[in-house]
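Lecture notes, unit on binding sites. The following record was shown on slide 14. It pairs a sequence with pyridoxal-5'-phosphate.
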Amino acid sequence: MNTDKIRQEIRGLSDGKLFFNNAGSSLMPNIVVDSMIDYLRQEEQLGGYEVANRNAELLDNCYAETARLINCKPSNIAFMTSATEAFAKALSSIIFEEGDTIITTVDDYISNQITFISLQKRLNINLLRIKKLENNELDLEELENLIKEHHPKLVAVTHIPTNSGLIQDIEAVGKICRQYDVLYLADCCQSVGQMVVDVDKIGCDFLTATGRKFMRGPRGSGFLYVSDRVLEQDYAPILLDMRGAHWSEYDNYELFKTAKRFEHWEVSYAAVLGMMEAVKYANTIGLNTIENYNRKLAETLRTNLKNSSFKVLDIGKNLSSIVTFCGPDNDLENIQKVLRENNVFFSVSYKNSALIDFTDKKVDGAVRLSPHYFNTLEEVEKVSEVLRNSLL
Ligand SMILES: Cc1ncc(COP(=O)(O)O)c(C=O)c1O
């Protein structure tokens, strides 16, 4: 991997900023922005329908490129405007009835938790969260027991939670779900683009992802993976449109075969194209290479922070490129001020974003630095020094 070349291909880095907010919204490669602008310029001249017709082959290739990223077929991919849209469409295809059980984790994403609570309020769904072991890993034995006892309609696990460096063992969860034939959704919003994500190994029925984070695509892009198993059983979003089905009789329709049935007809093709360029960029470098490099950056950062007596809040056997911490006295405010003054891009989350996790950790929130493969070890040292000096 040629980091110098990669950095030259990011206009956003030209002012010397220290960009560590890839878990929020990353910096796009130039090719992503240029291809989107070029596409919009065509729409400006010809109107969107004509441009889509002329670029049909290119747009079709977006499915193949994205499929390559997660090791599936193009027919398993549906483009979305966000991970949340993907999640909502997937859930809407499941017919929940009063008393059905959903199993999730205490670390799952805030919006996913709110959706589950909404289902609990409206449909009297039984919401269960898998307990964690002492070492912060999921208690898989408990998961198996919960499945045997409650026969859940769905198991949903966030691969990398937004507010902790944890990587959940979604492959082990997948094995159990397959064994008991339970629908399984993996929220891979923070892991796709950051590391190798392989649906064949995960064994999930749905996988949700967004474009703007570690994938380095534009805002308003994302995708949903839908397994063949689910497609063959005619799962489809409850509010289906003509993208999903052929209106065959006055009061009937025939579902289309592929995961495209989870899309709506109208999409921003400029955003889809931008995301495809971002995916292609990552595929060309190789997700294995990206994952190994990212691990080194994050490990160095965590070690530096610990050595400077910051409270690093990431606990787990496998940790990701999301580094969360607060000051020795739980400070968040002074850290933010110092980072801003030094042109460091970061994010901060407060208690309600990870209500259970932050309550257990007895903190009011966390500062989050999320390095990615265009960052260098020198930059990690620079940001570590800025933080070290903030304690003097
Ligand atoms: C783990 C996780 N899931 C889902 C989402 C939602 O993604 P989006 O905002 O693209 O809908 C996020 C966003 O931060 C996330 O971190």
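Take-home: Residues 82-84, 109, 111, 158, 162, 187, 189-190, 210, 222 surround pyridoxal-5'-phosphate (CB under 6 Å).
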